[in-house]
Amino acid sequence: MRQTAEQQVNKNKQSKRFSLKTKSAIVILLLLSSISLIQVWFVHQYQRQQFDVYLQTKRIDYDEALNRHVISSFYELSSLSDYLSALQRNEPAFDEWMRQNWVDTRAAWNLTGYFLYSYGENEKRRDLELGNSTLEHLQALIDKTFELKESQRLIHCSKQCYLLLTKPYLVNNNLYVSLLIKSTTELLDSFKQSTQLNNALLFRKTINGQALEQVQLLSEKEQDVFQQIIKLRSTSLKALNVGQLKMNGQEYYFWLNRLDNSNQEQMNVQTNIEPWLITIFDTTELAELNSNFWNQVLFILLSVLFLFSGIFIWLVMKPIRKIERLSRIYPALANREFKIAKNELPLSKKRYPDEVDILFEKTGNMIDSLIELDSSIIRKESELEYLASHDELTGLGNRNMLRYAVERLMKELEISSRHWALIYIDLDNFKQVNDSLGHESGDALLCQVAKRLKQSVRNHDQVMRLGGDEFTIVVDYLNSRNEVTIILEKVFEALSNPITVKGVKINVEFSAGAYASNDNHLTLEDIIKRSDLAMYQAKASGKNQYQIFEDSMLLSAERTFLIINEFDRSIDKDHFSLVYQPQFNASSLELVGFEALVRWQHAKHGAIGPYEFIPILEESERISLLGRFVAKTAIRDHAIFLQYSDNIQMAINLSPRQLYDEKLASFLLENCHKQGVSTGLIELELTEHSIVKNFSHAKQWMEHIIKLGFKMAIDDFGTGYSSLSSLNQLFFNSVKLDRSFISGMENSIRDKELLASVINLVSRINSKIIAEGVELESQHKYLKDIHCHWVQGYLFAKPMPIEDIIPMLEIYKNSGAWPTIAQKITKQ
What we know:
With 828 residues, the protein is an alpha+beta fold. The protein has four domains: 119 residues, Beta-Lactamase; 79 residues; 157 residues, Alpha-Beta Plaits (2-Layer Sandwich), CATH 3.30.70.270; 267 residues, TIM Barrel (Alpha-Beta Barrel), CATH 3.20.20. 53% of the residues lie in helices and 22% in strands. β21, α19 and β22 form a beta-alpha-beta unit. The chain is elongated.
């Protein structure tokens, strides 16, 4: 199913792919198009530049032609002026002659006016005036000529434009200045005829800072063109002096020349009219040639583009088609479709192979290798799948198989509800077998256990080994939850007979826990957790026991987890404290000591009793951390107690784990020295049970601690089954009778006699006897009668915090009697 899904995904990818052939065609077209566009752009820029240069050259040529016509016109006027000055010298009645021949002279030379000035007796006078004399600035021009004694030229415009030429000369030692005035019409006509261009005059007049323009047409042609130019100039932010114009399907190039750009400023001639000559050049034909040129260029470029694209695509398509076949081969290889991949290979080898042909050949070799490798992988996968789901030693299913079996069971239960169970089995003495007989024997034992377990269950039940000496059985199709008991009994029956390994008979001891249910919403971890809790409950009950999980076990486990988890926080937040129960001389009721007892007041969960948290903490090193806290605090507080009575001692309970704390003795010494407390006033208590369980180590440790000056007491005496001989080997100062002795003597004469015998026995080995849990006067009286040394219990005083102890010590110091005991004596 997984491979089919992958194949479908690959097919979807292939249907959405962008083929190399398409990519190549697009890239080629884009590349050639880019090259063509770049070429077009450069050609266009060059052609545009050439066109602009042509128009600029044309304009410069026309400007020079206009300048030549202006110079020629002034030259004609200068020649006429020389002729008239020579005539004046030879003709005494020159003025009269000029008046008589003015009309002919004006017509012949196209003159507008002729003026003659003379200079004598420091004043100028006009001797002759012919033609138009209304033009402005004539007098300034005459004055400049007299001043410089040089000929002056000027183009002057008002409503029309005129050529003005002054020339000084001497006649009979008298200075004369002649002024010739000629219209520019002949000049402009001549210019138009020589250049074949249309012109118009533009008069720009400035009034109150506002420019007004008016055109004077020199011909009736292109009137609308000139008007459009004026309109363009009026709408432009900066008046156009050179530009191009498209109008009525025609294209024009136009420019403007200032006509009065001679020495007007030098002669201080100021005018508010600027005369401009507008020249238009019809570029329609050039534009058509340019357009035709571009059409040809584009046609050639497109032809070349398609030609080279076709050639290039033809050259690359064949190898690309081969690559396409390769693109079908490799996905098929990825999906293990070797037959499909092999069919894509060419049937025959090429005589002249290229790189792709060589790749096909190597791909064929690779396919053959992959077929062989795939067959090998399939075999190996099968082997690995078996190893991944089975225990190599016993052949049973392992944890992975267990997970698979449980998950499959949960899915089946969704359809068909039924009872099922998981049995968790742990061998109790397996480590001893390994240590004594060796691991090879241990493995043989495990194989025999696995065989018997399989034989003890039904065919559809599954036995697994999780590792080490742990086994599980998945039990299915139970009629009820209680039916798992029958399976457990068969398992115990199968393992009850000894197993022989290498000639040695081994009695298999084990504990089993079972979780039975019809729930289908649990995870494997939850199921193992429940069966594991039941197994440990069975292990706590003794060997060869089994337990079926109850909800209370889970609550107990959660409580245990809470205690362990919260301990680390509470020890740092001062949630732990000590209370102290006084100890008294049984006969005199004199205060002789205190026993330090730890209390846990959790900020959230309230008071947690020591009988609950101490057994849990004793399973880890946390008990050592708590023990150090108790010892340090008790020694510190005892230093305070000694201020009120210098001969009382402090009893501190130790955990069996603390016997293996190599630094505990130095820790106790250090705190005693720090607080100034004598080690002889500190009595360390170990339970009889912990001493018996760790006898050899406990014996050495007790001997060492007594040598350091501390006192030792055996706590809960009578519960650890110690013998008189073992007691005789130990080093201790006191024996603390278990409270069960005290509470039992009220209802049993036998218990009283037993208690008396114990006290008599301990007294013979010179040890002090302390009775705890004394709550009745009759108990106290009997203990005193049988010579018990010290007593403690609720009859005399309850455990109290240091805050309550201090005031009572004050009273005791002053009165010599403990307050609660004094009250009882008073009442009696």
